[in-house]
Design a protein that fits this description.
This protein is 64% helix and 8% strand. The chain is α/β, with parallel strands linked by helices. Strands 1, 2, 3, 4, 5 and 6 form a six-stranded mixed beta sheet that branches. Helix 9 runs antiparallel to helix 10, helix 10 packs parallel to helix 12 and helix 14 runs antiparallel to helix 15. It starts with a helix and ends with a helix.
């Protein structure tokens, strides 16, 4: 805020100096037309020194007034924004510093922070930026003013963790933007097994600092602790860490980690759910071939997770994705709705719910969730662009037959996927629009000409066999 004020004061000062110079230069011309002896009883030679003195005295005065009013304006805008009845405080949890300075302990530090982000995302009264964005902020080294200007953040949660044998030393603080004032801070020196209690206290204290001492049902974590077994928890975090590396080798290691988590505690529901997610990643990225046997194993893992903990939103989210791929859209919607009710701020959750809704022709409602997912997390984990989120929005507007919105979204996509390409052709044809000389069409023609279109269109998961057959026929005719 200070930097912005200086810039605005500097502009005001320059304007004052330019105006003063013009005033001094024009004064003799004015006095030549209107003699000052008649108006003021003094000569121009006597008045000009007085004008110079007044201009000089006004210089520090204009600086002080400009700085004051600029500061007041910023404070009034921030106060108005934060006191609006429907406004939600927006926070980010910056990955904590690993004071052990070793890579071996990094998974524990990042895992604890990721759990904190998840806990905050389950509080509907505040808005938390996505895990991907939070972890990207680690490398940016921004000022509190930058956090507000670039990401419209109101508060930052930061800290450090040191693991010493069986103990954790955690330092955490909540600070506001743009000034960086610390609102709340604390230090913990506890055994590792107390990590869930520590996380609970951090989330509760910060939530109260942001939205007051109200009862927040999502803070009742007793039924959401993944395990009481620290060994199982650490293997769970290792599995999630490897899952987020998005390589075949890391994917295989993640399966091993999660198997060990289950072996250490057969009631660790999240270990089952995350193993299913890792298997889904392997299928999606082509690390392993999808078979009926493996799909059965994946579904069994999800069923087991829900049997152990029916309140695990991750499991419901993954069930929604599996049901969508199986074209069971009603079940996908039901699972997506359960996950969204439990965690309304997780972009992965609301995205799959939106995907299910648009397949069931609930287009406007689905668009709201897909748009919110894009706003919360424009570049999903494992992606380098926002193309995946934009392609989902494109599909929704395609189903609404909105060519203008589809064109608007298409132009934002960096690398058009075959679904967006084919649907765009279909929409252009139906609207009698020419497209064969456009670059997007020519590039797609070269890239997608050898695809197995029956397989690809089936992967669009359209809830309309007639439309699916029509698109296959269109693709094969190009």
């Amino acid at each position: 805020m200070f930097k912005n004020n200086v810039q605005k004061v500097w502009k005001s000062t320059i304007a004052y100096l330019v105006g003063s110079i013009a005033f001094i230069q024009l004064a003799p011309v004015f006095f030549a037309t209107f003699p000052p002896e008649e108006m003021f009883g003094s000569s121009a030679e006597e008045i000009m020194p007085v004008l110079f003195i007044l201009v000089a005295l006004g210089f520090p005065l204009i600086i002080g007034l400009s700085f004051y009013f600029n500061k007041q304006n910023v404070q009034e805008i921030n106060t108005f924004k934060k006191t609006k009845k429907d406004y939600k405080q927006k926070i980010a949890v910056i990955p904590f510093a690993n004071l052990n300075k070793d890579d071996d302990g990094a998974f524990l530090v990042d895992g604890i922070v990721e759990d904190l982000i998840t806990e905050f995302s389950m509080i509907s009264e505040i808005e938390i930026v996505s895990r991907q964005t939070c972890f990207n902020l680690r490398e940016e080294n921004l000022s509190h003013e930058d956090y507000q200007n670039r990401y419209e953040l109101d508060y930052i949660v930061s800290g450090s963790i040191r693991a010493v044998e069986n103990r954790l030393r955690i330092s955490v603080e909540l600070s506001e933007t743009p000034d960086g004032n610390v609102i709340w801070s604390n230090k913990y020196d506890r055994v590792k097994e107390d990590i869930f209690d520590i996380q609970d206290e951090i989330v509760k204290k910060i939530a109260i600092a942001l939205i007051g001492g109200i009862e927040i049902s999502s803070l009742k974590r007793a039924h959401r602790k993944p395990t009481e077994n620290m060994t199982s928890y650490e293997f769970l975090l290792k599995g999630k860490d490897n899952h987020h590396k998005f390589t075949k080798e890391a994917n295989e290691e993640a399966i091993k980690n999660l198997d060990l988590a289950i072996a250490a505690d057969v009631n660790n529901a999240q270990a089952y759910a995350w193993k299913a997610c890792v298997m889904g990643q392997a299928f999606y990225r082509g690390f392993t071939e999808m078979t009926d046997e493996k799909m059965g194993e994946l579904l069994t893992l999800l069923e087991k997770a829900l049997e152990v903990d029916p309140n695990d939103f991750e499991c419901h989210r993954m069930q929604a994705e599996v049901y969508l791929s199986m074209h069971d859209f009603e079940k996908s919607k039901a699972s997506g709705q359960k996950a969204t009710n439990m965690n309304p701020n997780d972009p992965r959750v609301i995205s799959i719910y939106g995907e299910a809704l648009i397949r069931l022709n609930e287009l406007d409602k689905g668009l709201l969730y897909l748009q919110k997912a894009y706003e919360l997390d424009p570049i999903p984990q494992g992606q380098t662009t926002g193309d995946r989120r934009l392609a989902s929005l494109f599909l929704a507007y395609y189903l609404k037959n909105d060519l203008d919105k589809c064109n608007e979204i298409k132009d934002k996509i960096i690398n058009i996927d075959n679904r967006t390409w084919l649907l765009c052709i279909d929409l252009y044809n139906r609207c009698s629009k020419e497209y064969k000389e456009e670059n997007w069409y020519k590039e797609g023609l070269n890239e997608f000409m050898d695809l197995d279109w029956s397989l690809e269109v089936d992967r669009y998961h359209l809830n309309n066999q007639e439309k699916t057959d029509s698109l296959i026929e269109l693709a094969q005719s190009i």
